[in-house]
Design brief:
The chain has about 220 residues and is mostly helical. About 55% of the residues lie in helices and about 5% in strands. It has a domain of about 150 residues. The chain has five helices and four strands. β1 and β2 form a beta hairpin. The protein starts with a strand and ends in a 47-residue tail after the last strand.
Length: about 220
């Protein structure tokens, strides 16, 4: 499950916005203590660093934290829905503990409804944010693999290609040498290139009167770039 964009922006911009919102939530929760804000700041900072530096592992703390948040929010909604049908007074008691201050029944009912709607909205937002960051995690991971493959191929430009010659003749034309077709379907193959030139030629009509380069025992001269 992944997405290509975050609303109307690309994944990286959306990820930075989500990281900023995470830090903002940490600032809001400062009055509740230091543990929650500290977690928010660390997770948001790791998220920003991971997005800017293409470090997929730095996105994992946010994914774990959001899974916990979503599980808690869903559990709260399930509790409210279940108690609302079985024992509505327990739901009222639950919200009275959350809502500080004296209020009449009408105000309490309104605030309770608003609180339930906010919980639903935040749950949906948390799920969507998790999907966005997970999609970004997959994108950064795939980008890292491509970079590693590119570096490997740059350092080993002749990683097991085969040298093939089609229409082999007594005095071969080097323009017939094809290094691009792999695996070959030709008369002459070299499985490790460059390497010591040990070429096996079956039924080769070698003309002993001709000079075939510096390696006369092979009957063929190769020019390597």
């Amino acid at each position: 499950m992944s997405v290509k964009t975050c609303c109307c922006v690309d994944l990286r911009t959306g990820g930075l916005i989500i990281a900023g919102f995470e830090i903002f939530c940490g600032l809001i929760s400062l009055k509740t203590g230091l543990l929650v804000p500290l977690i928010k700041f660390v997770v948001g900072g790791c998220l920003i660093y991971g997005i800017l530096k293409n470090v997929s592992g730095c996105l994992v703390p946010y994914l774990i934290e959001q899974l916990i948040s979503v599980a808690g929010a869903l559990g709260t909604l399930i509790y409210i829905a279940f108690k609302g049908f079985t024992k509505p007074e327990d739901v009222d008691a639950f919200f009275k503990e959350l809502l500080v201050g004296e209020m009449d029944e009408n105000d309490f009912a309104i605030l309770k409804t608003i609180a339930i709607i906010l919980v639903i909205i935040l749950t949906i937002e948390s799920i969507y944010s998790w999907i966005v960051i997970f999609s970004l995690y997959q994108e950064i991971t795939a980008f890292g693999h491509k970079v590693q493959d590119s570096v490997f191929l740059d350092n080993y430009p002749h990683h097991h290609p085969n040298l093939t010659i089609d229409n082999y003749q007594t005095n071969p034309n080097l323009s017939n040498i094809n290094l691009g077709n792999y695996p070959p379907s030709s008369h002459l193959t070299m499985s490790h290139y460059p390497a010591n030139l040990n070429v096996g030629i079956n039924s080769y009509p070698l003309n002993s009167n001709q000079n075939h380069g510096t390696n006369a025992s092979d009957g063929l001269a190769f020019n390597y770039q």
